[in-house]
Write a structure and sequence with these properties.
The chain is α/β, with parallel strands linked by helices and 268 residues long. The chain has one domain: Glycerol-3-phosphate (1)-acyltransferase. Helices cover 46% and strands 14% of the residues. The chain is built from eight helices and seven strands.
C-alpha cells in the first residue's frame, strides 16, 4: 500500500511538471514580459517562480514519504555569488531539489530541454545557458560568473549509476579554467537510489529514501598558471584533479555502498 501511494504521488509530481511547464510557457511568461524592468527583471522573476514551484513540488514529494531530505554545510545563498557549483547527479530529482534549495541559480541545460515545447520558453526566459555548443557554454558561463551569478553544473553530464566512481566530462574544467573562479563541490547521494538512470517514474522504494546534499569547502584551482599546457591538456589535468577530490570525499564519507536493491522489493 505504501508503494502504491508513492506511485500516485510520483505520477502527480511528474504530471504537474508537464502541466505547470505548459501553463507557465503559455500564460506566465507573456505576463512577466509585460511587467517593467526588461530582460534582467524577466530573468529574475522567472527564476523566482521556478524556485517557488520546485520548493512546493519537493515539499509535496517529501510529505508523500518518497524521500527524507538532508542538507549539510550549504552556504547561505548570498555567499554563493560568483561560484561555480559542481554537483553529482545520482537521480532525476537532483535538479528539482537544488532549484528548491537555492534561488536565482544559472543552470546549464541540455539541448533537448532548450528546444522542448513545454520548457524551452521557460529556460530561455530564466536566462539559462544552453549546452548547444561547448565554446558558447564556456564563454557564456564565464560572462555570467563575472557578473556575480552562480552557475550550477553537473560535471558527469547525465545521471550516473549509484556506487560507481565519478567520471567527469571536461566541460566543467574548461569553464573553471576560463573563468578562474572558485568551485563549490556539492555531493548528492540517495539511498536507496531514486529515479536513477534506467528507473521509471513508478519505480518507488518501499521506505523513504535518504536524500542528502552535502557541500564541501570551496576549491581554488591548485595551479595558478597552466599556460605551458594546451587547453585540452589543462582541462584533462583539472578534470582528473576534480574527480580525485570528489571520490576522496565520497569514500571518506562511506557513501560508496553496494548497489541497493530496495527499489525492487515488494510490500509484504
Amino acid at each position: 500500500m505504501k508503494r502504491f501511494l508513492k506511485i500516485i504521488a510520483s505520477g502527480i509530481g511528474f504530471s504537474s511538471l508537464g502541466v505547470g511547464g505548459l501553463l507557465f510557457s503559455l500564460l506566465g511568461i507573456p505576463i512577466l514580459w509585460l511587467l517593467p524592468g526588461g530582460p534582467e527583471r524577466l530573468r529574475w522573476r522567472t527564476r523566482w517562480v521556478i524556485f517557488r514551484y520546485f520548493r512546493a513540488l519537493a515539499g509535496f514529494l517529501e510529505w508523500a514519504g518518497i524521500f527524507d531530505l538532508r542538507t549539510e554545510a550549504i552556504p547561505p545563498r548570498k555567499q554563493l555569488d560568483g561560484l561555480l557549483i559542481l554537483a553529482t547527479h545520482p537521480g532525476y530529482l537532483d535538479v528539482v531539489i537544488l532549484l528548491s534549495l537555492l534561488d536565482q541559480l544559472t543552470c546549464v541545460v541540455k539541448a533537448g530541454i532548450w528546444n522542448n515545447l513545454l520548457f524551452g520558453h521557460v529556460v530561455r526566459a530564466a536566462g539559462y545557458i544552453p549546452a548547444l555548443d561547448p565554446t558558447m557554454v564556456i564563454e557564456a558561463g564565464a560572462l555570467a560568473l563575472a557578473r556575480g551569478e552562480t552557475i550550477l553544473l553537473f560535471p558527469e553530464g547525465t545521471r550516473t549509476l549509484p556506487g560507481e566512481p565519478y567520471a567527469f566530462h571536461r566541460g566543467a574544467a574548461h569553464l573553471a579554467l576560463h573563468a578562474r573562479v572558485r568551485i563549490l563541490p556539492l555531493l548528492v547521494a540517495c539511498e536507496p537510489p531514486l529515479l536513477a538512470k534506467g528507473h521509471r517514474w513508478y519505480e518507488m522504494p518501499r521506505d523513504p529514501c535518504d536524500y542528502s546534499f552535502r557541500a564541501i569547502a570551496p576549491l581554488d584551482l591548485p595551479w595558478p598558471d597552466l599556460t605551458e599546457l594546451s587547453p585540452s591538456q589543462a582541462a584533462r589535468k583539472v578534470t582528473a584533479w576534480l574527480e580525485d577530490r570528489f571520490n576522496q570525499e565520497i569514500h571518506a564519507a562511506g557513501h560508496h555502498t553496494a548497489r541497493h536493491e530496495a527499489v525492487h522489493r515488494q510490500d509484504p
